[in-house]
Specification:
The complex is a heterodimer of chains A (about 425) and B (about 500). Chain A is of the alpha/beta class and about 425 residues long. Chain A is built from nine helices and 28 strands. In chain A, the strands form seven sheets. In chain A, strands 1, 2, 5, 6, 7, 8 and 20 form a seven-stranded mixed sheet that branches. Chain A has a five-stranded parallel sheet with strand order 10-18-12-13-14. In chain A, helix 5 links the parallel strand 12 and strand 13. The termini of chain A are far apart. Helices cover about 30% and strands about 25% of the residues of chain B. Chain B has about 500 residues and is α+β, with helices and mostly antiparallel strands. In chain B, strands 3, 4, 5, 6, 11, 12, 13, 14 and 15 form a nine-stranded mixed sheet that branches. In chain B, strands 1, 2, 7, 8, 9, 10, 16 and 17 form an eight-stranded mixed sheet that branches. Chain B folds into three domains: about 160 residues, 3-Layer(bba) Sandwich (FAD/NAD(P)-binding domain), CATH 3.50.50; about 150 residues, D-Amino Acid Oxidase, subunit A, domain 2 (D-Amino Acid Oxidase, Chain A, domain 2); about 90 residues, Arc Repressor Mutant, subunit A, CATH 1.10.10. Classes of the chains: A alpha/beta (about 425), B alpha+beta (about 500). Strand 11 of chain A pairs antiparallel with strand 20 of chain B, so a sheet runs across the interface.
């Protein structure tokens, strides 16, 4: 039978969120901290992200993914953080009981004072977007291809079409070009790329990779291995426009059509999820509606920059410390944060209104020269906003001093000037 | 292949009975034959048995309420659930019991329910009950409020066909049957002594009796044997699999209406997902398993008529299978009969519910072999038991620890969505899985919500290591379906 153990803090996932949370938790004086990592190495998805651009905020320099991970791995080692590798958390529940399994440790159960969820996200597969056609070899998600090329040394194909312009897809377009593959096209169903402009410029335009906006793969061809795809232009309702079909011969189709926060464990614990982010509803401590369970990084909402993921890990660690010490948050008097129809997602979804807070916001559609308003207490102007780039809005403490004490709701909206 | 080249192929076997096709019918017949004395072989054209129509089915074990009175299919699937239950114990494979709820959405359809009950009863099935909206709601709270009546029957089943297919073949092989993979039959000739000579891509084999269980290709095999008058008409059916997060929507095997173009059917799978089918279109291409945008939309529509809360967001994969009916029977009945022109050849051409009837079909085929002159002598020492393999995901906690104590690799979860461990993946390869798909069908690694996004590279590496081949030679489902094109560095460098 499983041995039962006790922990102050369990962190699930050793990616940029989990490691930052662990380091911060130790700095804050939390003693028994264990990080559970299902992979054979720490760092989450970072070890396969060998491109640069990480760490500009946190370290004021441009690092690669493995370098960024190594900074935190070293800090974690300095703080004597216990990272359990090759260890899968099978279950957590409302009472913060966690069951994990590994080859060397067997099945173990932990009673935890606090849990930080930092499991990251997974990629949307082919089935989820229902691409018609045959089911040959040679259809991969962009992240899967990234792991193959950068970790395993496998070349997934030589003539490649990429569906979707998520960041990983665009980065892989460049990466596979550098490895000698031909990227015939990156097709995006939206009228704009869904990742960062920076990646559109540096990964596609700089390498003359054709970007086909308002295009989608209508059909996959090939019996054994992919032999080609049919692309079609779509109208504003994403319906294919007859007569615009074109066949492109290729041996591989990569999909970069969205990331989904991986909240299976959160659901087991009864954590309520926000359908707009796919992650938990949280307050400014990033605590979920299950007391003592926190959520940060891409399992909370898909971020653009790793630095912000780590910052969220630190916030969650700070919240966990309060919980472990039994300090009250004043969660009884929360102010709900509600976006209007211009807002795609917003985190946190509730605040206490006593402390400075940073909101992470995505607009629903591209906008120019806009003003973002939070209730009637705060506004900020932006030159532009796109769903692919998260807005970051920090509310200083003095804003709250001006708010009415009985306030229960703050509406967030954007307006073009 | 030219005749000259075929003539140079080596003779690789001499048998009493050869079964063409290692799908669920061929596998069931092989296992049944292995109870008797004799030399038997199964010829499978693919790299792994059961990858044709058998794989692309709903994997449901039905009662004979679809089968016209007096039909052969009704006779053969009368006690299908009981037979499957017994086999599940012997072969240590998954069998999940579910009940049937056949819905009428309009008052006029209530007559269809009565007719279904009458059909079932004509085949000796009992226990059918017509229920009203309130009882329907108790059984299935998410069913459309339009349901006016339902036909309710207990004790049907769902399985995962590829798992059964493999287990049956494994048990047959264990009892002396020879399995040839990638052994497509390209010619059948008959000697003066009445022995059939089968030319395959592996070599030639001879046998006195031949069972044609070639599924969609059974008409071509019949033609090779001299029966050119047999034709198959094909319908392609689209099915969808839903994420387990939608599983609370359906508890029973729910049917709606049936026609040439659809069979409205939504049910839990053996593994706890939901499967929805079937939208049919006519096709004349046997390899046409393409899923169309329209097919997916129409299938979803069928499902939403019964369960309005079904969301396309929860679809994790779609696939198509082909249903074949021969021109030798009426009303889509099974055609299981000796060849008119080639004595000793027995054709087995079955549409739905071929899976349900498969155990009885196997017995029926052995009877036909007896009629054709084969002496059926039971063999001492037939071992009906095949060892399944423990599944970490579904084992109770105390069993999980035991499994890890026996083999620590049960502690290493590789497929996170379905919680498949390294021990299971290695086990599947050591027991005969040679392709990515075979590992997937035997272990479920890659069948969850991320569809192999995380575990596929790991499975690929294990296949290469265990089979001692370059990763570039690992395939999805046989020659030509390689997963990767080359290594980024010369293999000697890494």
């Amino acid at each position: 039978m499983a041995r039962e153990l006790h922990l102050d803090l369990a962190i699930i996932g050793s990616g940029p969120a989990g490691l930052a949370a662990a380091v911060k938790a130790k700095q804050l004086g939390i003693k028994d901290v264990v990080v559970f990592e299902r992979d054979e190495r720490p760092g989450g998805i970072l070890p396969q992200c060998i491109h640069n651009g990480f760490g500009l905020h946190k370290f004021k320099e441009e690092l690669t993914g493995p370098e960024y991970a190594n900074r935190y791995i070293r800090m974690a080692a300095d703080q004597q953080v216990d990272i359990e590798l090759d260890t899968m958390v099978l279950e957590i529940d409302k009472t913060r009981t966690l069951t994990a399994v590994s080859e060397y440790g067997g099945l173990r159960t932990y009673k935890c004072k606090s849990i930080i969820l930092a499991m990251g996200c997974r990629e949307r597969p082919r089935g989820a977007i229902g691409i018609p056609g045959t089911r040959p070899a040679g259809v991969f998600t962009a992240g899967q291809a990234q792991r193959m090329v950068n970790i395993e040394g496998y070349m997934p194909g030589e003539k490649i079409v990429i569906q979707g312009s998520g960041d990983v897809g665009m980065i892989m377009a460049r990466r596979l070009t550098l490895e000698g593959a031909e990227i015939s096209a990156v097709a995006e169903i939206l009228p704009y790329t869904s990742g960062l402009i920076r990646n559109e410029v540096q990964c596609l335009h700089d390498f003359d990779i054709p970007l086909l906006l308002r295009h989608t793969v209508m059909e996959i061809h090939g019996d054994k291995r992919v032999e080609g795809v049919t692309l079609s232009e779509v109208d504003s309702g994403w319906n294919p426009i007859a007569g615009t079909e074109k066949f492109i011969a290729c041996d591989t189709l990569l999909l970069s059509v969205g990331l989904i926060p991986e909240n299976e464990l959160s659901k087991m614990a009864g954590v309520v999820l926000d359908p707009s982010t796919g992650g938990a509803y949280v307050n400014e401590f990033l605590e979920t509606d299950v007391p003592g369970i926190f959520s940060c990084g891409n399992v909370l909402h898909v971020n653009d920059y790793v630095d912000e993921v780590s910052t969220e890990g630190e916030i969650a660690a700070w919240g966990a410390q309060h919980r472990i010490k039994g300090k009250l948050f004043g969660e009884k008097n929360l102010i709900a944060i509600a976006g209007d129809e211009t807002i795609g997602q917003i985190v946190p979804q509730a605040i206490n209104g006593q402390r400075p807070v940073t909101f992470y916001i995505r607009v629903k559609r591209p906008m120019e020269k806009l003003t973002l308003r939070i209730g009637d207490v705060f506004e900020k102007k932006f030159a532009y906003a796109r769903p692919g780039e998260m807005l970051r809005v920090s509310l200083p403490k003095k804003v709250f001093a001006e708010m009415k004490p009985a306030l229960t709701r703050l509406n967030v909206s954007c307006e073009e000037r | 292949m030219t005749a000259a080249k075929a003539a140079t192929l080596p003779q690789i076997g001499d048998y009493d009975v050869i079964i063409i096709g290692g799908g669920i019918i061929g596998a069931m017949v092989a296992r049944q034959l292995s109870k008797f004395q004799g030399r038997f072989a199964v010829l499978e054209k693919a790299a792994f048995p059961g990858c044709g129509v058998s794989k692309a089915s709903l994997s449901q074990i039905h009662l004979p309420d679809f089968c016209p009175p007096g039909s052969l299919k009704g006779k053969l699937c009368r006690d299908a659930p009981a037979r499957f239950k017994k086999l599940a114990v012997e072969l240590e494979v998954l069998y999940r019991e579910v009940d049937e709820l056949w819905l009428a959405l309009e008052p006029e359809q209530v007559g269809d329910l009565e007719a279904a009950r009458a059909r079932a009863e004509s085949h000796g099935a009992t226990g059918y009950e017509i229920i009203g909206p309130q009882k329907i709601r108790e059984l299935e709270p998410h069913v459309t409020p339009e349901a006016v009546a339902g036909l309710y029957a207990r004790g049907l089943g769902v399985i995962y066909t590829p798992e059964w297919n493999f287990a049956l073949i494994e048990n047959a092989v264990q009892n002396g049957v020879q399995l040839y993979l990638q052994a497509e039959v390209i010619d059948i000739a008959k000697t003066r002594e009445g022995i059939y000579r089968l030319t395959t891509r592996q070599g030639t084999l001879s046998s006195r009796y031949v069972i044609n269980a070639a599924g969609l290709y059974a008409d071509e095999i019949a033609r090779m044997a001299g029966d050119g008058h047999i034709h198959l008409s094909l319908r392609k059916g689209t099915m969808l699999i839903f994420d387990k997060s939608a599983s609370h929507l359906v508890q029973n095997m729910i049917f709606g209406s049936f026609s040439e173009s659809h069979s409205q059917d939504i049910a839990p799978t053996a593994h706890g997902n939901l499967i929805l089918g079937v939208h049919y279109v006519k096709t004349d291409k046997k390899s046409d398993t393409q899923v169309s945008r329209e097919g997916i939309q129409e299938t979803l529509k069928l499902g939403r008529q019964l369960i309005p809360a079904l969301s396309e967001k929860d679809v994790i994969t779609s696939f198509a299978g082909i249903l074949a009916n021969s021109n030798m029977t009426r009303d889509g009945d099974f055609f299981i009969a000796p060849s008119e022109h080639a004595p000793g050849v027995i054709h087995v051409m079955v549409g739905a519910p071929g899976l349900s009837a498969a155990p009885a079909i196997a017995e029926y085929v052995v009877d036909l072999l007896g009629d054709a002159g084969w002496r059926t002598l039971e063999k001492a020492g037939f071992n009906p038991r095949r060892r399944g393999w423990p599944r970490f995901a579904t084992a109770p906690p105390e069993k999980k620890q035991q499994m890890i104590d026996t083999d620590p690799k049960y502690g290493h979860v590789v497929c996170r969505c379905e919680q498949v461990t390294e021990a299971e993946i290695l086990g599947s390869i050591r027991r005969g899985a040679r392709t990515m798909d075979a590992v997937k069908h035997l272990t479920r690694a890659g069948m969850g919500r991320c569809q192999g996004g995380f575990c596929a590279p790991f499975v690929l590496k294990h296949l290469a290591d265990e089979l001692k081949i370059s990763p570039t030679r690992v395939t999805k489902n046989g020659p030509g379906s390689h997963q990767i094109v080359k290594m980024t560095k010369a293999e000697a460098d890494i």
